[in-house]
Specification:
The chain is an alpha/beta fold and about 300 residues long. The protein has 2 domains: about 230 residues, Alpha-Beta Complex (Spore Coat Polysaccharide Biosynthesis Protein SpsA, Chain A), CATH 3.90.550.10; about 70 residues. Helix 1 links the parallel strand 1 and strand 2. The longest helix is centred in the last third of the chain and has 23 residues.
Length: about 300
């Protein structure tokens, strides 16, 4: 006897001018293991793309995927606009977001859905592993991967649960929500998020913190794995400094408690000097990025006071 459908999931992929990597993302979904009792759909939120995004989605939708796939145009450029449009358009009881340069493992959907149901989670983030487009430079070690929003799998799997289930490990390249979470805790703040060449981020972290601080339940799902493409253009100290500055700026706009005090700046300057004396370039760059975050935060505080 066929299993009746008892739940539904929407995979939402916001995208802007990444037709080449989007095709790989959509291809990875064709191999997903899908529970018999689950109805699945995929929506691609085309955030004012000017490349071949429409053609890529049309080709994927016409290739007989094992679930419906559709493209939705969101003309207001910005990651928060695209994510909130996905919430409006999604038909699922659960909404799982995947980045347009990430590929999902076959068991990703099963692991995420099972953990959210059995643990009663309002939201969950999975493992985001780096997929290097070229070998990373020697200084780009695991200590810096958090700045690229990817995980060190060995460290995650060997750490105690209380060190894994923390806000710093939650990345929106691989996140799932119950639809009810948006009704209870609100949506992505549209004054935050990447817009065009403005890299200000933080709309995801702000929402995760809001869920947690208002009594929601959020968790980490190590078995829900995606692979995030890291292009060569991201493997430079300059790129990482810009991102760290932008994240600090966004955290100030988001509000709430901050560790960006003068003692943080002093400690990082001292540690940067120590790392330089030891010949530890990874350590030097790490503390540079912490300083960039500090300056981004205070730039925003001064701009919006």
């Amino acid at each position: 006897m066929p299993t009746s459908v008892t739940k539904s999931v929407t995979i939402a992929i916001p995208t802007h001018n990444r037709a080449r990597t989007l095709g790989e993302t959509l291809d990875s979904l064709r191999a997903l293991a899908i529970p018999d009792d689950t109805a699945l759909e995929c929506i691609v939120i085309d955030n004012a793309s000017t490349d071949d995004t429409a053609r890529v989605v049309e080709a994927a939708a016409n290739s007989s995927p094992p679930f419906p796939m559709r493209r939705i145009l969101e003309p207001r450029q910005g990651s928060s606009f695209a994510r909130n449009r996905a919430v409006d358009e999604a038909r699922g009881d659960f909404i799982f977001f995947l980045d347009d340069d990430a590929t999902a493992d076959r068991e990703w959907l099963l692991a995420m859905l099972s953990a959210m149901e059995h643990r009663g989670l309002d939201a969950a983030c999975g493992m985001v592993l780096p997929r290097w487009s070229t070998p990373p430079p020697p200084w780009l070690g695991p200590r810096l991967w958090v700045k690229l929003a990817v995980h060190d799998r060995t460290a995650i799997e060997s750490a105690p649960a209380n060190e894994v289930e923390v806000l710093e490990n939650y990345f929106s390249a691989n996140v799932g929500f119950r639809r009810s979470a948006f009704e209870r805790f609100g949506r992505f703040r549209e004054d935050l998020g990447v817009v065009g060449k403005n890299p200000m981020s933080g709309e995801d972290t702000e929402l995760f913190a809001r869920i947690i601080n208002n009594g929601g339940k959020m968790g980490f799902v190590a078995g829900a794995i995606v692979h995030h493409l890291i292009g060569a253009e991201r493997m430079t100290p300059e790129y990482l400094r810009r991102k760290s500055f932008a994240y600090g700026f966004g955290s100030a706009v988001a509000g709430g408690k901050s560790h960006n005090r003068l003692d943080k700046l002093a400690k990082n300057l001292i540690r940067m000097a120590g790392a330089a004396l030891r010949g530890d370039r990874e350590g030097v760059i790490y503390h540079q990025l912490e300083c960039a975050n500090f300056f981004g935060y205070w730039r925003a505080r001064l701009t919006y006071r």
